[in-house]
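Worked example 3 (structure in, sequence out).
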């Protein structure tokens, strides 16, 4: 009888824990916003807020994609930054060569899809995800430097600028794209067999395998999603600044990984939410912006970001431990 009661209570426990995570992150966003506004008044200026939400959108889009990888138990991808770079460069080159906008967007994203698929296949075959994506990132960055000769590529076409600078209802279009992708991925993870498979793999890969779930397909698809989302960031950057170079996304891997971990996605996989990842991206973007306004040195910014990420991971694991005990 007690076993039945325990089992029946468990879903409510998980739901309350998820809601607690969401509330904690929302409170974190508000706290960072208030503290930043009080200590750095320029933080709340219109121009700075627009810059911050744009940065949060780019970090968030890539982080939402990476959440799928983390949920499968493969931790993170360390080639996100390089994938965004190569996609941006290919997009700028295509526009500069006179390609129509749709082709200049679709073809680079198709390349990003292939990049993700190749990495996903190797990881599904048993290779370590960190080593695989680190090696892939180095190779991609090398290719990007070769094809650009380490120079800035000018798009020279004004047509895509609306994709980078438009503000429907006063909100940057990057934010709208970010919100739409978050909503879509939330539905995918909660309502589709693919989403349930992704979480099951991270929770218990042996059970997933014995249940006949298509693990290889789900892992490869997760890497494709992460890579394409990183590619979208590259395209949006080109649309905003009308150019691309290999140094555009310096430090992007760190910010994206930080957003996923601050968002409370379990390092071991199986538990997480793209909504929480989105909130984590907002926290990281606001924190980074505040530190830039306060003129913190790069090393200091990394230290503070590291402490925030470490603290969030410890806190979330503690809450999980208390909830399961």
């Amino acid at each position: 009888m007690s076993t039945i009661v325990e089992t029946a209570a468990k879903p409510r426990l998980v739901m309350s824990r998820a809601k607690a995570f969401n509330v904690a992150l929302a409170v974190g966003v508000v706290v960072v916003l208030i503290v930043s506004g009080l200590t750095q008044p320029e933080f709340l200026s219109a121009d700075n807020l627009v810059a911050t939400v744009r940065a949060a959108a780019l970090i968030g889009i890539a982080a939402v994609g990476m959440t799928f990888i983390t949920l499968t138990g493969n931790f993170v991808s360390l080639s996100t930054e390089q994938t965004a770079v190569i996609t941006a460069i290919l997009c700028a080159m295509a526009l500069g060569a006179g390609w129509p906008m749709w082709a200049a967007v679709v073809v680079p994203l198709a390349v990003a899809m292939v990049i993700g698929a190749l990495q996903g296949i190797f990881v599904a075959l048993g290779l370590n995800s960190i080593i695989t994506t680190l090696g892939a990132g180095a190779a991609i960055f090398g290719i990007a430097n070769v094809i650009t000769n380490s120079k800035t590529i000018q798009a020279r076409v004004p047509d895509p600028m609306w994709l980078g600078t438009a503000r429907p209802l006063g909100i940057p279009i990057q934010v709208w794209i970010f919100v739409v992708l978050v909503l879509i991925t939330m539905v995918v993870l909660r309502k589709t067999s693919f989403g349930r498979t992704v979480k099951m793999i991270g929770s218990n890969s042996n059970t997933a395998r014995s249940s006949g779930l298509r693990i290889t397909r789900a892992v490869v698809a997760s890497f494709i999603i992460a890579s394409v989302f990183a590619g979208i960031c590259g395209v949006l950057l080109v649309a905003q600044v009308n150019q691309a170079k290999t140094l555009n996304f310096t430090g992007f891997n760190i910010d994206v990984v930080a957003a996923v971990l601050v968002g409370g996605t379990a390092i071991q996989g199986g538990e997480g939410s793209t909504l929480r990842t989105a909130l984590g991206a907002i926290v990281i973007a606001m924190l980074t912006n505040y530190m830039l306004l306060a003129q913190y040195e790069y090393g200091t910014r990394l230290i503070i970001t590291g402490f925030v990420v470490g603290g969030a991971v410890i806190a979330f694991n503690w809450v999980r431990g208390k909830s399961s005990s």
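Notes: DSSP finds 13 helices and two strands in the chain. The longest strand covers residues 153-154.
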